Structure formats: structure tokens, C-alpha cells
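BUG: 3D viewer hangs when loading the predicted structure for this chain

Environment: internal workstation, default settings.
Expected: structure renders.
Actual: progress bar stalls at 90%.

Input used:
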Amino acid sequence: MDTSTHITFGFGLAGLAYLDPAVSSDPSLATAILYGTVLGSNAPDFDYLIKLVKGNGMYIEHHRGTSHSVFALMIWTLLISGIILLFAGNIDFFPILYWTFLGVVLHVGLDLMNAYGTQAGRPFTKKWLSLNFLPLIDPIIYLFHIVGFILWYLGFSPGPTFAFVYIFVGIYIIIRFCIYKIIRGIIIDSTEIDGIFTLIPSIWLHKWDFVIETNSTYYVGSVTYKKLQWIHHFDKHDENCPKIKTSLKDKNVGHFLSNSAHTHALIVPGINGDEVRWLDLRFRHKNHYPYMAVAKINNHNEIISSYTGWIHRSKRLENKLAANDKNLVQL
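C-alpha cells produced before the viewer hung:
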């Protein structure tokens, strides 16, 4: 999920903690738990430091990796709880510990439910795990929390209020999962294509995207109100194409391919060289695939510059490639 969703859950869990009489009767403990739930709900994404230190490409490869792993759940919980206790003074440590732990676990659990996924199974497996039934940003989940915050502000007891909020959130998540299973069944029954299949949620319950990958082709489509529509199909790129093979030597392309799925390479001709664009076909916006890696290759088959990340406008891509020109910056 996005950062604002995780922050929202952090404050919501702090309200839910008031169900514990020890919390509702002790403002110092309630404040400490608020810090614990908000920080815990965001701690796995502290791997953003990788972007600041190592650059965007390295961040793309490692985001939602080790920081979301089984052992990281314990490390984040103990680290945050210990720091809070250090500054909070003489208060009960155990409530801070388990509410912080709940925030961390909920973060990873929510990330597992969307299409990007996590490496939550580390160190036992490096496989990217995703359940694909919640969007990266879900307005319904926001709405439930906003109602809860308004009621809290108006004087309603936060404990029972957020108990109801999370009952409704839980019911909504179950409904989304059931719809996911129904839509998946519709697609499987409506096509005889045999391949790797991924269903991608949108913010709307009635609209879902999907990708089917066969040995030779990618099929991209959507389902709206149970009606299937084919959007694109791509013949797979030629793995022996010299420029595509050259692009694979680039670090940014390598970072991108390490955690992407259904990746398709396109060659876009240019005046001073060609661009090899690697697209993740799971993430489509209208007719555009904004999550990509791009390597610009000159007429001597040398990589001039590259970039990986979310690109929604061609002008922005030009600027990124210019900024990363290998004549100016050593990647």
C-alpha cells in the first residue's frame, strides 16, 4: 500500500488500543503506543534510505525485500519499542511492544495483498509474494478510517469506534477477495489460453486488469462488470536482438527485472540511438505502462544512459535519461 495508507492505519490502531483500560486510563501510555503504531506501520518502508544512499535503481530492486521479511518484523518491533521506552520513561513496556508489532505486521500483510507484493518469506525464500486483490491505494479503506477519525474528534470513544472500523475493513477485504476469485474464474472460463495468469485490482470493485503470458505472447485485458475486454497483445521480444541483449548489461535494467513480472522489451528508434524499454505489463494506465526500465543505446551498441521507475510522461523520461547520461554520471 502507499505511505498515506500505512500512516492512516497507524493512527487507527492507536485509537483501537483504547479498548485496553490500561491505555485509556494512562495518557502517557496512550501517547507512547501512538508513536509505536505510527512508526511500526511505516517501519518496513524505511528502506527508502536505500534510494537516498544507493540511488533509485537499487531502491527499486530492494524495496519490500529484506525490510519486509520474517526477521525484520521482530527487529523493527524491538527497535521501535526500545527507542520509545528509552524516551517515555516509567511506563509498561509490553503494550508498546505488541501494538508496535501489530503495526509492523499489518504493514507487511497489506503489502502482500496488492500486485507489487513483498519478499515476506525471506530468508526462507526470495520469491516475490502477492495476493493481488487490493489496489496500491484503496479509497474505501481511507473512507472507513476518515469516518472513525471524525467520530473520535466528535467525542466518541476511540476504542469501540475503531473496533467497528476494523470490522468493516475486514469485511471489505473479504468481499474484495471473494470478487477476486469470481473474476479469476470468469477469465479462466472465458479463454482457452494456457499460460501464466495474473489478475490486477483497480480502485473499483467492478474493474480488474489481467495479464496472461504464454511461451510466445503476452495478452493484456480487463474485466468490467464481468465483461471481458482484450486491450493489447504483444509477441514476445527477440532475446537474441543485439540491443536487447546489450540492455541486459545495464544496472538499472537489472534492478528492474529483479522484482518485475510479465516484462516485455520494446525498441524505440531515435536520432542519436535507440531506447530499449522494458515494461512491466501488470501496471497499465490506459494505453501506457508507466513502470519501466529504459536503456538508451547508441549506434555503436553502447549504453549511453538508463533509468528505472515510474514514468507517466515522455518529457520526464527524456529528462531522466539526460540526467543519467553516462558521459556525465557514472552509473
